[in-house]
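Proteins fold reproducibly. Take a tokenised chain:

. . .
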Amino acid sequence: MATGIEILGEIIPEHEAILSAEAIAFVADLHRRFNPRRLELLKAREQRQAAIDAGAELGLLPETESIRESDWQVAPAPDDLQDRRVEITGPCDRKMVINALNSGAKVFMADLEDASSPTWHNVVDGQLNLYDAVRRTISFQNPDGREYALNPETATLLVRPRGWHLDERHITVDGDPVSGSLVDFGLYFFHNAKELLARGSGPYFYLPKLQSHHEARLWNDVFNHAQDALGIPRGTVRATVLIETLPAAFEMDEILYELRDHAAGLNAGRWDYIFSIIKAFAATPGQAVLPDRAQVTMAVPFMRAYQQLLVKTCHRRGAHAIGGMSAFIPNRREPEVTEMALAKVREDKEREAGDGSDGTWVAHPDLVPVAMDIFDRALGDHPNQKYRQRNDLEIQAGQLLDFNVPGGQVTEAGLATNVSVGVRYIDAWLGGTGAAALDNLMEDAATAEISRSQVWQWVCAGMFSRERVLAELQPWRAEHARAAALFEQVALSDDFVEFLTLPAYALLD
């Protein structure tokens, strides 16, 4: 390795090509150029949160009014991103990658973030699996002898790197851990950008956890430099941004503007968005007390306003508007439970399609035809609904900040569910599994964040005592001691822990 670069994780033979000296040097260059700004932006997050804690109101930025009021559009979508009516998401393990690409969905978002536990093996093995998928050489054999390979026609591949707040401690540059975002982006881009172009596609990404247009500008600068470094035309990268933080909901136009040569759209990241609301008002927990998670649907007023604003903003700018996740997992052994859940999925997808969304997310292949049928009927002969400008909608900032849920309640059952899901998910994550099937739902880090943050909020608001939560935790300690202890830390700490994955990462092997 070049001077100042160290790989602290084990390099097994099959990972040597992914971790080549040239690839690591590319990542190190990104880190040296852009990590100082990343750290500045993380500090800016803290300052903005301090201002909110002190009473500053969230709203549209007066200094960017000209961007919101002027007419401009993002670059046209490439051919294989025109039709995104159903997107499936999941981690980058080998079998999952094959099944997702074969699922019949238009897009597969390969997730190196919330659906991935960032063990060193998972980080590098995920890159290897994506490398093989791009070249269509990926295969997998089950212990029972079943073999998996790609179909002739597959979904378009998008990759979600980790958020700006996460480090990758197994690679250091000049003594500092490298940004997890730059590791995930850099390795994938270095190895696959030219190959994807040769195959008629391109390097496409989902960008998570952005809290401001300044963070989008940093990504845009990373894209430009990476393209220049490999001799790839600027504008080749396409990025869809998840609007999954409350501050970002007030900067949708600005985020698209900063990425306009690389932007592909926005996505309603509903679970992290709910978590972000709780986090934004952690210092004033009585201001945004939300009821049981199951009651905070996309039909409640503030969530509907957020989704509709996203559609209107995207279509005005020529970008795709992608709806939120349906995390339900069909259970063939419980047909009645499955049918009730599918009815809710259909209702959710019909609402998204009716509002003008160009596509939606599902977590299981069995939901692809359900969602596909709904969007096929809504889109007709069109690849998307960008022609629906939604000028009939007038979404005010106050609608995004009115967190009333009609009929919503905080219940004992909600507390029990949050503790159960939180502890079991953390246990899976610490064991290397980032997407865990629990109670017929696909849980990931975002839903675990809701579970623990709701408990924290409810305790601070006086709805449950610490002793009541500890009693609910007690049965889980014998079998899931580390997970229960971590859940207690992030759910009952005096100060709100920004992300549970930060203390959890310190416990990973």
